[in-house]
Amino acid sequence: MGQLRANKFDVTHEKQEERSETVVINTCGFIDNAKEESIEAILQYAKAKEEGLVDKVYVTGCLSERYKEDLEKDIPNVDEYFGTHDLPRLLKTLGADYKHELVGERLLTTPIHYAYLKISEGCDRPCSFCAIPIMRGKHVSKSMEVIVKEAEALAREGTKELILIAQDLTYYGLDIYKDRRLAELLEKLDKVEGIEWIRLHYAFPSGFPMDVLDVMVKSNKICNYIDIPLQHASDKMLKSMRRGITAAKTEKLLADFKCIVPDMAIRTTLICGYPGETEEDFEELKDFVRKYRFDRLGVFTYSHEDNTHAFKLEDDVPMEVKEERVAEIMSIQQEISNSLNQQKIGKSFKVLIDRKEGDHFIGRTEYDSPEVDNEVLIEAKEQYLRIGDFAMVEITSAEDYDLYGALVKN
Ligand code: SF4
Description:
alpha/beta
């Protein structure tokens, strides 16, 4: 979108007008649900094209990288399908030039005060269930200079919170610097003027670079927050998943996190119904969730993806069982989340105000990422807050996934 804007195109994220000249759909092809959502979007715009509401429809991203031939056959009304490395060709087709000099030029799809910042692309891990390396290729880190420039450009536009993402944050640097350099990158980003929060998403547990925690402790800007997908807790499952870690090592890592950064909020994701998951494996997973009381947790049903290692195994856990297991974990987590939230009542937090909705301003603490974590609701009747500003808020009541608070008066 930044490239198109630099080419003087009138470009918007998601459809604003009744009629558009051209629509570009960026697809996801990770698991069944994401694929379905992407296909629905393609069908919706293929239909809009038939009805004369859109002139051209192009599809890019992971789904079209992975299933280009099938899509061309099944939805031929799309003008062209592009893969994940086809940006210059896509721009050319749209009548724009790919400008190499555009470092950090972005057109944000988030509110200006927070932005996702991708530090690398692709993945070298061998996780058995995962199709991402097939779609995104080998791990390629962006250089620190390029990332810092992008962060500075975002800060100049008004971004206050950077959310660092990659398929695997902790691998950062190994390809280009022959060394894990996430900690050094964080030290550099910490110095970017205007940025107040830096949040870490998608850290792989095996070989976690512990120096990252030292930077987190030293810096006021690095949120005491980590998103570390653990996927399972049974050794049998972890081995088959090729995660390169055991349950005991995972537990040691979590203990180290809490010892070095005691107030760290940990978000994780798990998979239920991986091939061969028995009741015993699932019991182990439940015990693990109960014991570690994660601040944030998401669970997915296993999705049997072709060309992955796990595809050779039998997808033997019936969908109803997968769904029941997901529901069971989420009900355990709901209680945990509620009890952790109750403990926040009476405490004050720095809150970043994301939006206004009805009678409330809605914001987040440093322990919460947008869209996936808790929100803090503040009565809008008696106080005025600006979107994108920070405010000190005292928590007055709490629900499972929401906190209610009032401004702390100076
Ligand atoms: S680290 Fe993440 S992206 Fe890479 S293979 Fe494993 S699950 Fe997939």
